[in-house]
Amino acid sequence: MIIGVPKEIKNNENRVALTPAGAQELLKAGHTVYVQSTAGLGSGFEDAEYVSAGASILPTIEEVYDIAEMIMKVKEPIEAEYPLIKENQLVFTYFHFASYEPLTKAMVESKSVCLAYETVEKADRSLPLLVPMSEVAGRMAIQEGAKYLEKPLKGRGILLGGVPGVRPAKVLILGGGVVGTNAAKIAAGMGADVTIMDINLPRLRYLDDVMPANVNTFMSNEYNIRELIGTHDLIVGAVLIPGAKAPHLITKDMLKDMRPGTVLVDVAVDQGGCIETCKPTTHQDPTYVIDDVLHYCVANMPGAVPYTSTLALTNATLPYALQLANKGWQKACKENLELKLGLNIIKGEIVYQAVGEAFNLPYTSVDNFLN
Fold first, then answer.
1. Is the dihedral of CA 132, 229, 146, 204 positive or negative?
2. Binding-site residue ranges for substrate
């Protein structure tokens, strides 16, 4: 199979979908890999390293899309890329369709095959291609939140861990999954007073067992959320429903109950956000203020630490990419239910129910394309 790796063109997206080591593994399996010139530079990988691994370098993004049977990316295609995607071309990347209808319609019109990292799902309901970036984003949520609590950046002016004789900041984390757990670890390690909320009682029991003493667990419901938001300094939205739009756990009217300078970090922004007043921002312009509450809603947080993120992502995606390349997408998805669940759009048809329901668009069974 011919695999193409274009350079990411989303604002301040420095990750690349494949490391030189990953390219070498695909080449060893008999495939051809084309990488756009400087695609890996933001992550610390020179063109020469890809060439040394056996890949070929192409100067433009148009040439990569034109030659490839499978495109490997990090973030969803943006508008400039829509016309480049060809009929029957396999695009393997994060899509987050349910949060953006124009992308969904553009991919339907392209008649390509869209296999989304974020809906590849194991039998235990875990999301193996979302986990590494969720780990990065969860840890970064506290790192960024701590920074934006500083007064010059319009935060409350509170040090996350406090100092002797002064109470630490209070951190509220909505969601006890991968993002929330990693956020809690970092916040606790920095000395904050942490509360993590979830609707899953067994999960809360587990977190209560493994987290340090400065992390408390609390059942998530509207009453409890409203009770806590007025006393917490940093609130992290970390809720995910696979492939679907995130629910709004914090509504606009709740902002008035928060103290001026409270910081909201919505890690779920690329799935629509679990904070109603959330809207996607960029690393170039990451924050905005509504009702004296600071919102940090960068949709590609791991892009700020591309070396770590690219290595973590390739570690997770490469085994699946090899299956797709070795067998072709139809056979690979028929034989591997995890990959099958990653199929969102096939040749002009939506095949992932949550995506169709998000925009009241028709959807069909993925099995129609695999039999």
1. negative
2. 15, 75
Catalytic entry in 193, 233, 266, 270: 270
CB–CB of 91/344 below 8 Å?
no
- Alpha-carbon distance of 21 to 3, in angstroms, equals 14
Report yes or no: 228 and 238 within 8 Å, Cβ to Cβ.
Answer: no
Residue 270 known to be catalytic: yes
User: Which of the residues 31, 96, 232, 295 is marked catalytic?
Assistant: 96
Give the other-Cβ count within 10 Å of 79's Cβ: 9
- Write the pLDDT tens digit of every residue in 62-107: 999 999 999 999 999 999 999 999 999 999 999 999 889 999 999 9
Domains along the sequence of the chain with CATH: 2-119+306-369 (3.40.50.720), 131-299 (3.40.50.720)
Which residues participate in the annotated binding site for NAD(+)? 134, 198, 203, 220, 239-240, 267-270, 298-301
Residues within the annotated binding site?
A: 15, 75, 134, 198, 203, 220, 239-240, 267-270, 298-301
Tens digit of pLDDT for each residue in 267-311? 999 888 999 999 999 999 999 999 999 999 998 899 899 999 999
Length of the chain in residues, anyone?
Answer: 371
Can you say whether the dihedral through the CA atoms of 28, 317, 20, 345 is positive or negative? Answer: positive
